[in-house]
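Give me structure tokens for this 567-residue protein.
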Amino acid sequence: MRKVIALGLFVVFTFLLTQPALACARGTLRFAQKSDSLTETQYQYRLEVAFPNLLFDKPVGIYYAGDGTDRLFVVEQQGVVYVFENSEEVATANVFLDIRDRVLFGGEQGLLGLAFHPSFSENGYFYVDYTADSPRRTIIARYSVTLDDPNEADKNSEEVLLEVEQPFANHNGGQITFGPDGYLYIALGDGGSAGDPLGNGQNRSTLLGSILRIDVDSTSGVANYGIPSDNPFVDNTEGYREEIYAYGLRNPWRFSFDPESGWLWAADVGQNRIEEIDIIEKGKNYGWNIMEGSLCYSPSEGCNQTGLELPIWEYGHGLGNSVTGGFVYRGSKLTDLIGAYIYGDYGSGRIWALRFDGINDPVNTELLETNLNIPSFGVDEENEILICAFDGRIYKLTSVVNIHLFGSAAKGWGFTEKNITSPGPTITAKEGDLVNLTLTSADGITHNFFVDYDGDVNPSVGEPKSLDFQTTTINYQFAATIPGTFTYYCQYHKGTMFGAFIVAQIKLLGDLNNNGIVDIFDVVAVAVAFGAEPRDPNWNPVADLNNDDVVDIFDVVTVATNFGKTA
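Here you go.
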């Protein structure tokens, strides 16, 4: 009979591990402890300065070259590009390109975009988007690195591909990115002022108010670029610009491609009411200035929405007033966010995660609210999120684990007066997490936390600890900086007498054999113990992950959800 149950469990595992909803299900986890205690774990996020030794002047973009060197490039709006090693300890950044003498800088104008050719490691080509003067215009230009120094560009190698006259000083767009098809995509705003007074958003005879797609590896007539043959308005007879890929945009401020789905995500800055997120598709009209988001703009009501593509997500100006586009997270450190579009708002400093699969309703989650002006997001070669801020810093997004232990010091974790009789509540954290640990006593006994690095079950010099014995609730913070399993103790005292310790282990949830990975051996352990209770001969307390005195489907789901994860 036990073999039949085990076989059935493997079938259940096979099913569970193919379900995308379970594969990324995290959030607030509640583990019922024995007796009168409870552990609550919440995963939250914070920003850390990624490169403490570096400070920039109005950084508007951070990029990597895709050449395997793991270098990062920061664009300053005034017209300078810096290059440096992607290391927290990096001491200095070197000037890669300085074209301040060519850039019209101020307000929304300046050096706004950078993109590296897909074959950059072979040809050394990269492209910039900047505003120039006399006349005021957007310039898309190609540069090359010097032959003898990969960390220095040849300023004299500029080749202008495209110039677009700008009637006003705002709404320049500025993002340029190579798509998975190898073509260069270019964002241009509607030309500026307010309300699109020249009607550029709906005018396909101008490049303004559009996302363009060009071929930088070919030429067409007198142009220094080619038109992809499948651009939506190729060979039209109405006078539409053939470079246009999509139109009806007000000021698309940052767009990016999801490397897995290939979707083009764009943030379009609103006028007075709505900020929007769009999935950009070939030939589609995104509504401006007929619409602002999902609302009529001109006319203010009763507008004709025929043929217009509405945003997949929008928010009002109570939450922010200038959306900054980001990236779909495809890194490995923030597993809860994989597949979510991470974006923010320049004005409010909020950062969100937006999930959308094209079928179900989108789900938007606020990750944190900062006091920063955020002009741009970026990713490194490992697809980890980086954030530019106008305080001059580059930030990284990291996770925080908040854990609250409730219960009786005498009973909740298996105390005796002198000895540890059993492990206490298990709390989980990933390497690099900041852990906020709170203990609330149910019996009036005060407590002290410490981490026992040396294994002597005593607080020693160099071991983090809290010293507050004056309250029954202790707030304790530590960084899970060392991978693996470590023991954290709670020391309590009553009057002047020290009592026993409790144990809280930082470990990988579902890793029953503590080998650093949730693998097939953990599957087998749960399968063998499935259905067992403490009185049964095959009882395995390690397999009872939620401590409810039975190895059941909840333990199966826990292992299935975490299958493949490593410490």
